Amino acid sequence: MKIAQVTPLYEAVPPRLYGGTERVVAHLTDALVDLGHDVTLFASADAETRARLVPVRDQAIRLDPEPLKSDLAAHMTLLAEVLDRADQFDVIHFHTDMVHFPFFRGLADKTITTLHGRLDLKDLPEIYERWPEFGLVSISDDQRRPLPAANWKATVHHGMPGELYRFSPRSQGYLAFLGRISPEKRPDRAIEIATRLGKPLKIAAKVDAADRAYWDSVIRPLVEGNPLIEFVGEIGDAQKSAFLGGAEALLFPIDWPEPFGLVMIEALACGTPVVAFRCGSTPEIIEDGATGFLVDTMEQAVAAAGQAHTLDREAIRARFDLRFSATAMARRYLDVYGDLLARRPFAAQVLDDAPIRPLREARSFALRA
Prior knowledge:
This protein has 13 helices and 13 strands.
């Protein structure tokens, strides 16, 4: 199958530090190449990929030191490059929300769009009502709740290469918080849980400009005034195995409808259990009492974090391998691509030209997953 992967340009593929969408695109792209498909990645020039790269910007936007940048102009260039080459692909897989809809309306039947963000925002329902011809993939079933009537084709949970994270059979006795300092991620809850247990907490997180006031007024005083808390700062993939693997548990005390939460499966890959508030996607990702604990209150969270060391870390890693590997994710997407090809008006011509091997491969891979 000839597949185009179209990623946002905010982070490198994969990101150098924090970043979810571009990291997933990197893992999916390489896994599809490993499964024998012809994949082209449209991304910034600093991407690292086993696919054919079409660079559309010299570097990813967030870490570009230029003080004046146009996100819109960069993504217009991206879409123009994809449109110029559209006839080269069987499937064009967008990860750019809805920005491509007006430009690819005549090609909607060869596209699939994975939505990576929250969908409970004003203006979104009108967009998906205006362009219903675009098939959508959710990254959790819960993500769909604000838009139940949208043109959903599948839910595909994220995955990542098993070799990217080292399994750690024993922890070093601290709790971990990994992600972003923001009110909805609730690092304040993580600090309270650790403090009430008397356990060390390491926080590895970035602080966006939009969240600087929250960091300065709420979180920094809690960190600086507590000897149990260590603020590590933003880390990349190279540091995550040691950081997550050494933790007794990852605290995921969110207070918003998290569409997926990549850090949860990063922890599972290291064998580290996750204590997560029952919100958004967490009941789909964490198996309560097996790979972590789902909680509804702070009292439950404190109790769960105190019990996390009793869970079997080898079993946690095994569940990651079964459910969240990059290969499993790619095979599920191949099933989506196969369905897309089968529904196209000219499917018979496509199958005559290349017989039906790509479609059969897609369904075969999905069945084996």
